[in-house]
Write a structure and sequence with these properties.
The protein is α+β, with helices and mostly antiparallel strands and 356 residues long. It contains 4 helices and 20 strands. The chain has a 20-stranded antiparallel beta sheet that branches.
Length: 356
Amino acid sequence: MRIGKWTAAAGATAVVVGAYSAYWLIAAGKIEHGLERWAEERRAEGYEVELGHPVITGFPTRFRVDIPHPLIGREASGWIWQAERLRAEAPPWRVGAMEFTLSGRHALRLLRGDLWQDIACAIERGRADLRVDSKGRLTDLDIEISDYEIDSPEFAAPATGRALTLSIRRDYPETPDHQSETVSLSLRLDRLTLPPDMYLGLGKEVERVALDAVVKGPLTDAKLSRALADWRDAGGTVEVERLELRWGPVELETNGTLALDPEMRPLGAFAAKITGYGDVVDALVMNKLVPLGDAFLFKIAFHLLAKPTEPGGPPTLDLPLTVQDGNLVVGTVRLMEIPPLLPPETSVLNETAPKP
């Protein structure tokens, strides 16, 4: 009798194992076909997609997809990305979620005006967690990268970084307007060592950058210049909940609202605290953004407005910061001109912009 029970249990186990094995193989086949279908759909939309020959392993606890030399991009949108390899993993019970290994070498091409810029990135350790909705649209993206190097023919030397984290949440309102929250993002960057030609007089290392922001307004999947113009024309804004910068002697904390004006220049109002403002003025003079004669007057005005945040502490500016009509104004002091966000070649888009 006992032998019969063991036989029945063994038989049931064999059935379960066999059924799960069949499920895993069928699902692996669907993943492979799904990748092919996704690539074809993107190509039909004008993207260039190369996935090589994906290899699917990980049985029984995971689906692991190794893609050699992946490439995706669209020249019309002004970007192309390629890597030496990409690994994606997910347990069978997590639907719509995937973990990516980003370690290795990556190449990115970005269109700036009429010229392409090549950027190479080597990542020692990196991962990304991605989640999509039932329509296959990105809803959540979390990236963690440490010990990385970024290089370009335009750099005097590579830039290196200790750590970078980025979290993006994407919403898709049915009828988005200028008040719809479409993207929220959080960025943390620590210990970025710059090439010598990017010190800007503030030092070679950016100690920390922290940004928390919410993008409001409809977003389209068009070329960057076109998408920005459409977003601007729809009344889009960026609510900067927090921006923190520590670079050499400079410490900046600010929050406010940012948009684009009809000439694609930043337009915004912020509340800011700035320590090391004298070094900022010196850096602007060094980079020929502010005349030397004006710099002396700026320092006097800022010194009169600044107060230490604590006894014996450095003087700190605590005042409004505005960007309007192509000018950056600190308090009531017009500090410098702010150029358009996009190069002049894209100014044709301004024909559709609302007039001031």
